[in-house]
Amino acid sequence: MNILHTTMLVGKESYGLGPVALNLVKEQGILGNNARIWSFDSQDEIIWASQQAGLATGAISGFPLFGSRRLWFSPRMIKAAYGPDGRGLDIIHQHCLWTSCSIATNILRKKYGLPTIIAPHGSLDEWALNNSRLKKRIALTAYQRDNLESASCLHALAQSEVERFRRFGLKNPIAVIPNGAVANHGTVPPCPERFRRQFNLSTDTRIVLFLSRITPKKGLPLLIEAIQSLGETFAGWLLLIAGEDEFNHRAEIEQLLERHKLTAKIKIIGPLYDRLKEDAFAAAELFVLPSHSEGAPLVILESLAAGVPVITTTASPWEELNTRQCGWWVDISAQALRHALAQALPLPAERLIIMGQRGRRVVQEGYTWPSAAEKTVRLYRWLCGAGERPDFVVTE
Questions:
Q1: What does the DSSP assignment read for 373-388?
Q2: Under a CB-based contact definition with an 8 Å cutoff, are residues 291 and 324 in contact?
Q3: What does the pLDDT read at residue 295?
Q4: Which among 269, 280, 267, 220 is positioned nearest to 247, based on CA atoms?
Q5: H helices then E strands: how many in the chain?
């Protein structure tokens, strides 16, 4: 099949969204399909992403943005959709909302009659919808509602997203296909000692890791409040905040740390990529994501695949952290985060390692990219009239 994936970014700043498209394209290719990506990346970022995923650079086309990134508007992507690029495609799989990707999908669907699949990746969560609310209302009227309601199928990452889609009023079929994870992208094993040397951390410092965008929806103020209230329970531990700054939120977090005199307990170290990111997971004993809003964040899978127990909120569909005893799944509040940390921090390293081993098994049993790709191909064939409806598709 000839498959087009569209997404915002696949380069270093894409975080969890880019690897979804990259890994699906890679695994769909292994299954004998011709899959490619449209994104808004520069050529340098495309080269980096292609090397990470083991793809030919020709598999990814980058379209420059016009104006601010807040708009995510690319006249060149729209022009390409009107051109001959859609001829010969069998299906479109879109991995984002509120961007020119939605406009391009609408054009290709109408021009060539192509089946389309839309994966909102948390964008229809109530918290996310209320963020930049006016902009999203305008986008809904201009192109996004047509994009969603006309989709052949919606792609949910978990059952909780199915419920969000229905609350939003969407009646399309919904395919529930979780993301996968890759424990180690490279041939060299991760090295915790190298990470500690890089950031001048002593060997006896116990590390809690946050790795995601530094942006309001990730809930860092809740986590800071929780740690402040722990007092001496946090002694011997260090929270490392790793990620790209968004909306100048890093400055707000730095002010909070100064105000609460927590700069010795919490450090911001910037974004981590490639081997350094894998080293960070190897050095960490706990991972925490205190979000207000999520789809099914890939970084949780990456942490579990690396054998690191996770503390996260009910913004993510990760009740398995509790049921499989590989972490803590708690309410979205500083008090709930404090309670989870108060349980986790006193545990000896050996207990956390056992929890991490359980988490690695969870990923191996249910969250792999080959499995996700096989399901998407079954879905595509059904939508193209070449197969039966898969059992993971919800129609009610």
A1: HHHHHHHHHHHTTSSP
A2: no
A3: 86
A4: 220
A5: 17, 14
Q: Are 359 and 388 a contacting pair, CB within 8 Å? A: no
Rg (CA), the chain: 21
| CA atoms of 224 and 238, how far apart (whole Å) | 12
Q: Is 339 exposed, middle or buried (0-12, 13-18, 19+ CB in 10 A)?
A: middle
Residues 6+ apart with CB under 8 A from 344: 286, 309, 311, 328, 352
Domains in the chain, ordered, with CATH? Answer: 2-180+368-394 (3.40.50.2000), 192-366 (3.40.50.2000)
Listing DSSP states for 168-212 in one string gives TT--S-EEE------S-SSSSPP-HHHHHHHTT--TT-EEEEEES
Q: Find where tokens 């010795």 sit.
A: 264
Decide: 288 and 310 in contact? Cβ < 8 Å. yes
Contact (Cβ atoms closer than 8 angstroms) between residue 215 and residue 249: yes
Sign, CA torsion 129/134/136/137: positive
Q: What confidence category does residue 184 fall into, taking pLDDT thresholds of 50, 70 and 90?
A: low
Q: What is the largest CA-CA distance in the chain?
A: 64
Bridge partners of residue 312, in order along the sequence = 289, 329
Count CB neighbours of 278 within 10 A: 24
Mean pLDDT computed over 358-362: 97
Q: Is the pLDDT of residue 15 over 90?
A: no
Token pair recorded at residue 312: 């996260």
What pLDDT was estimated at residue 254? Answer: 98
Position 256 confidence tier, pLDDT thresholds 50, 70, 90: very high
Dihedral-angle region of residue 247 (phi above 0 means left; psi in -120 to 50 means alpha; beta otherwise): left
| Position 221 pLDDT exceeds 80 | yes
Exposed / middle / buried, residue 155 (Cβ in 10 Å: 0-12, 13-18, 19+): buried
